[in-house]
């Protein structure tokens, strides 16, 4: 079972199915197409689609497209792609709130006729003043008592484009003294001459979120409408709308806590800022906590689903350390990724007693526990590369790698001994001369222990590969919550890690020249890597580091 364990929403659903309140459940994932999906959305997708899957129900994909200024077809396309990539599918065609504009309008007309909505002319500032505060009740707008006929006439003319933008609104007539500010005559329509990505210029009035959302849920026969906690105080409005229009069914809204990831940002608006200010290469930059960025980074759908199961669903704070995300990804890759060797910072070695007739290559499995992944040859030659870090002139105690006069095993090959060190004028080690113990292929050396095993490549067979190493994007846990001396939030872009990406020229096994984009490998001892979705070619391999082998966040 790959979806979140028992949690309160599952309990509610099980009760509703058991009591016969619902025969089937129907959920929805309702993104606004104003940006790319991020890790928080991934949690919501796993919840909504996961519940439908678990209880044999249906989950709709619905674009909540009522703010035309910020929405686009590009975002619609990317959201569809990301949901599918995460492994989920929606029933039929995706839905759009804009498909319901005519219905929403008709319900508004009915509310006006019932005396439950009125056209207001207060401007934004006046409306704020009339609204009151948490401790003070609001005041009725002077336009609140217009007749239904007058309201109907004005609303019809709002739609017809007779009034300038912002000059009038349609408000629900609920209660200006309500303890819940959301019920103090909320605006449900505003005038806005903005081109809509689907309806074009057909409308110059657009419905507001709460009104639209409740009715869209009911139109789609949603049973459980799941949203994040900040909408808890909107629930009475959601219910009010459905109680006051003639529509079948009354979906129930339940709230869970928003996922927040430390050292990261989960807000489309702020992620958009990173893109537009060129702090990253795009929404799908591998450092971005977007679904498409994480995909390009090499995260797997299975790993993200495992993560979302782990973080769980509750009403308590859901602030998660990056190590939880990386842990889930690593755990899944450990089993699913074939292995190869790569050398990121090469140090050349000449094997001085290399002998074509005597020195043998071996083959090695691509995965230690998955025979079906096959094997590859690990060729050896007179010149090889090892990692610079695996040699030290003055090693610390307990050094298990190579040093002058010391021995080490080349992974899947012989034990070698360092006989001579070649340095440049500045004293930097530039090459080693080593000897092979030809008795050690697949055998322990006689009369001594060689503990260290290092990865390496034949210099003649290795292929060049560009490798991109990624670090955290921000230098502080909560980049968007740091206050300056004046008590104001500092711009989160002040906390960008200036060293979050490094590209190096490395070497890899020849198999790198055969890989398709988005192929994942473990580079032994180094971490998990993926061939870049866009920049990798078989002629010029490009690997992105997905995650290191060990948790580098705590040491
Ligand atoms: P943002 O602030 O990033 O724009 P949003 O909530 O406005 O997020 P929507 O497109 O409206 O974004 O979100 C679609 C769905 O995803 C909503 O049901 C919302 O509750 C859920 N969602 C968004 N962010 C998170 C998060 N951080 N954790 C859990 N669910 C989230
Ligand atoms: Mg939203
Ligand atoms: Mg939003």
Automatic annotation (TrEMBL):
Catalytic activity field: tRNA(Gln) + L-glutamine + ATP = L-glutaminyl-tRNA(Gln) + AMP + diphosphate
Pfam families: tRNA-synt_1c (PF00749), tRNA-synt_1c_C (PF03950), tRNA-synt_1c_C2 (PF20974)
Renumbered ranges of motif 'KMSKS' region: 265-269
Keyword annotations: Aminoacyl-tRNA synthetase, ATP-binding, Cytoplasm, Ligase, Nucleotide-binding, Protein biosynthesis
Record domain Glutamyl/glutaminyl-tRNA synthetase class Ib anti-codon binding: where: 337-437
GO MF term list: ligase activity
Places the protein is found: Cytoplasm
EC number: 6.1.1.18
Record flagged with keyword NADP: no
Main location (coarse class): cytoplasm
Motif 'HIGH' region mapped to chain: 31-41
Assembly description: Monomer.
Family, per entry: Belongs to the class-I aminoacyl-tRNA synthetase family.
Protein name in the entry: Glutamine--tRNA ligase
Source organism of this protein record: Vitreoscilla massiliensis
Gene: glnS
């Amino acid at each position: 079972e790959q979806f979140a364990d028992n949690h309160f929403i599952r309990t509610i659903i099980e009760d509703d199915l058991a009591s016969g309140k619902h025969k089937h459940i129907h959920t929805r994932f309702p993104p606004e197409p104003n940006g790319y999906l991020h890790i928080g959305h991934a949690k919501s997708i796993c919840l909504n689609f996961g519940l439908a899957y678990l209880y044999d129900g249906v989950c709709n994909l619905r674009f909540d497209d009522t703010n035309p200024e910020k929405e686009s077809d590009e975002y619609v396309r990317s959201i569809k792609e990301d949901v599918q990539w995460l492994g989920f599918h929606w029933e039929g065609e995706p839905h759009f709130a804009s498909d319901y504009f005519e219905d929403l309008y008709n319900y508004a007309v009915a509310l006006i006729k019932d005396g439950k909505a009125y056209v207001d002319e207060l401007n934004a500032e006046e409306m704020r003043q009339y609204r009151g505060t948490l401790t003070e009740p609001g005041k009725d707008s002077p336009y609140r008592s217009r007749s239904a006929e007058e309201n109907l006439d004005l609303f019809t003319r709002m739609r017809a484009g007779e009034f300038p933008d912002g000059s009038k609104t349609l408000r629900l007539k609920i209660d200006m003294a309500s303890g819940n500010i959301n019920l103090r005559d909320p605006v449900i329509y505003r005038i806005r001459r903005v081109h809509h990505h689907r309806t074009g210029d057909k409308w110059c009035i657009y419905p507001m979120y709460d009104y639209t959302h409740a009715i869209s849920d009911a139109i789609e026969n949603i049973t459980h409408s799941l949203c994040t906690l900040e909408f808890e105080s909107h629930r009475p409005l959601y219910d009010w709308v459905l109680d006051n229009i003639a529509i079948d069914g009354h979906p129930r809204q339940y709230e869970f806590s928003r996922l927040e990831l430390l050292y990261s940002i989960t807000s489309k608006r702020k992620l958009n800022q990173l893109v537009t200010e060129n702090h990253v290469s795009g929404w799908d930059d591998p450092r971005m906590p977007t679904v498409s960025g994480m995909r390009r980074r090499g995260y797997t759908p299975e790993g993200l689903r495992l993560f979302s199961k782990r973080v769980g669903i509750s009403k308590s704070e859901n602030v998660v350390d990056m190590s939880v995300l990386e842990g889930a990804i690593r755990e899944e890759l450990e089993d699913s990724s074939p292995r190869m060797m790569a050398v990121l910072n090469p140090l050349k070695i000449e094997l001085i007693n290399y002998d074509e007739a005597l020195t043998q290559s071996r083959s090695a499995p691509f995965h230690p526990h998955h025979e079906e992944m096959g094997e590859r040859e690990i060729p050896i030659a007179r010149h090889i590369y090892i990692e610079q870090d695996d040699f030290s002139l003055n090693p610390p105690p307990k050094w298990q790698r190579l040093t002058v006069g010391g021995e080490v095993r080349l992974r899947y090959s012989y034990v070698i001994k360092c006989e001579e060190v070649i340095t440049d004028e500045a004293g930097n080690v530039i090459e080693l001369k080593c000897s092979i113990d030809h008795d050690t292929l697949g055998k322990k050396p006689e009369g001594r222990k060689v503990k260290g095993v290092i990865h390496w490549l034949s210099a003649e067979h290795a292929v060049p590969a560009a490798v991109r190493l990624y670090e955290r994007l921000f230098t502080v846990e909560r980049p968007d919550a740091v206050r300056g001396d004046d008590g104001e939030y500092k711009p989160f872009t002040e906390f960008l890690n200036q060293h979050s990406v490094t590209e190096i020229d490395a070497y890899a096994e020849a198999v790198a020249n055969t890989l398709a984009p988005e192929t994942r490998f473990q580079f032994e001892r180094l971490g998990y890597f993926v061939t870049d979705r866009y920049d990798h070619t078989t002629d010029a391999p490009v690997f992105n580091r997905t995650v290191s082998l060990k948790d580098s966040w705590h040491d």
